[in-house]
Amino acid sequence: MMSSRTSPPSSRRGSSTRALLVASMALFTDNLVVGLAVPVLPLLPSVVDAGPAWTGVLFSSYAAAVVVAALVAGRYVDRHGPKTPLLIGMVGLAAATLLFATGGPFWLLLVARTAQGIAGGMSWVAALSLIAATTSFEKRGQQMGIAISMITLGVLVGPPLAGVMVEHFGTASPFLFAAAVALVDGLLRILLIKDSPRVADDTSGPVAVLRVPGSTSIVLVVVIGAAVMAGVEPVLPGHLGAGSLTIGLLFGLAALTGVVGNPVVGSLVASVPSRLLVGVGVAAAVAALLAIGWAEDMWLTATGMALLGFSAAFLHAPATTLISEQGFRAQPPTLGGSFSLYTLAYAAGLAGGPLLTGFAVDRAGFTTAMVIAAVTLAALGALSLPRLPAADGPR
């Protein structure tokens, strides 16, 4: 069995730095491609011809593939280490971007979207497991915070970059650019991962992690952190009736506060009780939703969006660190299972947030929907906090 207790300090520092670089680039590249695809795919002729229902299938195929790949990657990472899943993710992402660049037919785009989801599920589980396996407890929260920030940065950069490139160079250009970024990312994965730390020969998976006391509370925190931003994304633009630039700036503001906040909050995980950090995150998320819902002026909406990104940092950074601790506590230990569970919870939040706000806006209006979302998040937070486990301390 391997854990973060076993590595000598000097070798751990070098491997930890390489792990952070590889994991951050992997997460950034994956989410950059996600961001590039969002504004471009619906405009491709083959997608337009397929109609709204099949467009929904195209976009949902990514999430379905992420879930399946995350489960497979978790077991493989525990038994053989994260290097191979990272390389599979690289190949899948490069293939997906080149297939997207063809523009169709629709079935080929569906294959590309599925390949993108497989790459994402593999990369997320392997990248976060790599950081947890090579980083001491004192630094783990900060390293996880930096890696999670790269997810936000990729999503932030992707859509506006795609818009500019499509306008000047055509619809294939964002995906050709993404393929080049994926190539650089792949070279880093090959050159910088010298070994492939594994956790156990007898893998146990996400169910074993879920059985560890406190894991359900962490899952709820991950769901809240993913749902809070995802729930606002589909309903705020229609409510404001503003131009694309204004909407982009508002979501960019939320992403920016998240990018800045994640490593800062992560650095506090080793010294500040996780219940306090998560409690601040839940309170900030509730306040943000209420501010956005009741805002009559753009400055208050902007304040709420900034607070929304800030709240996500207080939720994701502790949860990402705590879920790795739960993996070490499982019998047998399983980092792959930990981050499979994390990825599944994140996907649940991404799906659940828009469903909640979408139906609520349709039935009760925007302001009431934001109040319902705030109350729901407050209730989930109240359920999670009492049983949220404490971190073990230095490993």
From TrEMBL:
Sequence ranges assigned to domain Major facilitator superfamily (MFS) profile in this UniProt record: 19-392
Any GO molecular function: transmembrane transporter activity
Annotated keywords: Membrane, Transmembrane, Transmembrane helix, Transport
InterPro entries in UniProt: MFS, MFS_dom, MFS_trans_sf, MFS_Vesicular_Transporter, Tet-R_TetA/multi-R_MdtG-like
Record membrane topology: Multi-pass membrane protein
A Pfam family recorded for this sequence: MFS_1
Gene3D superfamilies membership: MFS general substrate transporter like domains
Protein name: MFS transporter
Originating species: Corynebacterium kalidii
The organism's taxonomic lineage, starting at the top: Bacteria, Bacillati, Actinomycetota, Actinomycetes, Mycobacteriales
